Amino acid sequence: MGDKYRPSNGTEGDIFHAKWCAPCSRNNPDKDVFCPIIGAAMAYDIDDPEYPDAWQYGKDGKPMCTKHTTKAGATSPVPTAADLAYLDWKRNREQAQ
After folding, report:
1. Rg (CA), the chain
2. Closest CA to 70 of 7, 30, 19, 4
3. Of all residues in the chain, what percent are helix, strand and coil, respectively (each to 5)?
4. By C-alpha distance, which of 33, 35, 1 is closest to 16?
5. Where are the domains of the chain?
6. How far apart are CA 28 and CA 4, in angstroms?
7. Is the pLDDT reported for residue 36 higher than 80?
8. The pTM is what?
């Protein structure tokens, strides 16, 4: 299992949500289905035992959700070049610290 992941700001959280949460069958607000992982990630600090293990860094070093299951007919949005540049910058900054 990789290290736990937590978005560092709203922009990074929006990127993660668009890629992993929006197309996931565990989260479908139109059908009143809400993923408890999202709520727990917002409610608990990353060091809290209740923080979800599902949000973590993958083998490629990128954040992921291990519980993701794509909705039928859904496609995961492709991050823009700016999104990827920001995530690379953040990862490099964290590694330098």
Report:
1. 14
2. 19
3. 40, 10, 50
4. 35
5. 10-96
6. 24
7. yes
8. 0.70
